[in-house]
Amino acid sequence: MAVHAHPDDESSKGAATMARYVADGVEVLVVTCTGGERGDILNPAMDRPEVKADIGKVREAEMARAREILGVRQHWLGFVDSGFPEGDPLPPLPEGCFALEPLETATEPLVRAVREFRPHVMLTYDEKGGYPHPDHVKCHEVSVAAFEAAGDPDRYPEAGEPWQPLKLYYHMTFSKDRILALHNAMEKAGLESPYGDWMKRFEDETDKAAKWDVTTRVPCGDHFETRDRALLAHATQIDPNGFWFVVPLDVQREAWPTEDYHLARSLVDTELPEDDLFAGIREKVCL
């Protein structure tokens, strides 16, 4: 089960991993917390009045195409996008949005989804949300709370029979090591790297160590093309001529053929580093 804040997040974080496991016969469920109703249109070709007027329905249709491409099931939690506040000072979040929901209230439908789907592994963001969007931070909080509550019969007793997932991971999609590897590979190939601003940012953060280390690298380079097709399905959010597609797939596969995670919780024994989200679980099942 991969828990995400908005439609399109599942395609930019962990999509090739999901496609790999689907190809291996694993059943995968994407849980989308909000409808992305307050998201900006990031593709100039889709910046049209009729799209803006019905952005929620448009993004719902985009999600349907992406989940078909990835071969996953998908479930909406039904919360309302909080939007990304900008300005100084920051404006208040809109009333009724996901980020303002009480944690106990926001966790219940995810606990229900966990107990119904019965995943062995859950994926989510770290406590900063991957980037500081209020819905991403809330998604982290809700995911951790649901992981801890779903197996407890005293928590949310009306939300189905208890089920305890065995492992919880945080996405580490944009780790410094990966960005450096891709940047260097582009320069080695004589191509212009899209990561120039990232490199400057890394120089400014030389004294700041990453809080979460990468514990798990899942080989999935064979599924990068599927990931990209799923991204393109989110046409309001992804410019086909934009940043996501600058690095050729063969360069990506050569420089960094994995998607990476931090193992945040585990109820099974496993040896780090891992190359499989189900390490320790497959062995447990075989006993």
Automatic annotation (TrEMBL):
This is Mycothiol S-conjugate amidase. Its cofactor is Zn(2+). SUPFAM superfamilies: LmbE-like. InterPro entries: GlcNAc_PI_deacetylase-related, LmbE-like_dom_sf, Mca. It holds the Pfam family PIG-L. Zn(2+) binds at residues 6, 9, 136. The keyword Signal does not apply. Gene3D superfamilies: LmbE-like. It catalyses: mycothiol S-conjugate + H2O = an N-acetyl-L-cysteine-S-conjugate + 1D-myo-inositol 2-amino-2-deoxy-alpha-D-glucopyranoside. Binds 1 zinc ion per subunit. It comes from Actinomadura darangshiensis. One of its GO terms (biological process) is mycothiol-dependent detoxification.
